[in-house]
């Protein structure tokens, strides 16, 4: 199935079906984002940002809410 075919199928959905699809896509997107964050953490790609945040906190430039 092509993207164009998927788009046409989505356009043909009823309002309720579209709502269900939209809800599913949102949850699916958040899940993929969570997976990417975990992969980035495990791969050390966020270490620099974490260190920077710690340094700013220790320097009194930030605070915990």
Sequence-ordered SSE layout with sheet pairings:
Elements: H1 3-11, H2 15-42, H3 47-58
Keywords for this entry:
mainly alpha; 0% strand
Walk me through the structure.
With 65 residues, the chain is mainly α. The protein has one domain. Helix content is 75%, strand content 0%. The protein is elongated and about 55 Å long.
Report the biggest beta sheet as strand number plus sense, adding barrel if it closes: none
Count helical runs.
3
Number of strands: 0
User: What is the helix/strand order?
Assistant: HHH
Number of domains: 1
Distance N to C terminus: 48 Å
Give the fraction of residues assigned to helices: over 70%
Oligomer description: single chain
Return residue spans where pLDDT drops below 50 for at least 5 consecutive residues. Answer: none
Quick rundown:
By secondary structure, the protein is an all-alpha fold.
